[in-house]
Amino acid sequence: MASEAELSDFLKNAEKKAFKRAYYHVRDEEAALDVVQDSMIKLCTHYADKPLAELPLLFQRILSNTILDWFRRQKTRNALFSNMSDFGSDDADADFDLMEVKSNTSENASVESAEQWIGRVQTLEHIETAVMALPARQREAFLLRYWEELDVAETAAVMGCSEGSVKTHCSRAIQALSKTLDKQGMRP
């Protein structure tokens, strides 16, 4: 059984990656924050008595299910109510601010030039856009394998599919990303 401190540490460490993963799926910063918060609450409420080693996979599965629930709610809401945003202009403040994220992690920003820093931020923006353009299952497999660093078996358990499906989704995602980024002049 994980202690309260261990559970708290686990959630602190998982928070940023979970947010990014949720954001890639729902494409709305506030909704992604809600999804992550709901997932963390569900983990603490229902699985706090589990061993610490089981928490990462449980949390990833809960996060996946919470994202699916969000999409289901959106589908129901859109079917029942007309979306008022269709009649107004887009809210520029709803965009994800990569500059804010990068400002928290660039400890050696004074070492690199402004040109290098801008180039790095633009590269990350291109990659982020390409990842967001992937089909949902490919994006989920890619993020779980390469962002969350889960192995194939763990990813299959989280996604509720076979290991072969995970490999196929990852392969297709990598091909699509490579093709997209190559068109933009970005090569490994």
List the SSEs and their pairings.
Layout: H1 4-26, H2 29-47, H3 55-80, H4 98-105, H5 114-132, H6 136-147, H7 152-159, H8 163-183
Helix pairs in contact: 1-2, 1-3, 1-6, 2-3, 3-7, 5-8, 6-7, 6-8, 7-8
Helix and strand sequence: HHHHHHHH
How many strands, what sense, and barrel or not for the largest sheet? Answer: none
Radius of gyration: 18 Å
What is the CA–CA distance across the termini?
Answer: 43 Å
Q: Estimate the helix proportion, in percent.
A: over 70%
How many individual β-strands? 0
Strand content: under 5%
Low-confidence stretches: 80-94
Mean model confidence by pLDDT: 82
What overall geometry do the principal axes of the alpha carbons give? globular
* Content-based structural category: mainly alpha
Name a few traits of the molecule:
188 residues; mainly alpha; globular
Summarize this entry quickly.
By secondary structure, this protein is mainly α. It has helices at about 5-25, 30-45, 55-80, 100-105, 115-130, 135-145, 150-160, 165-185. It contains 8 helices and no strands.
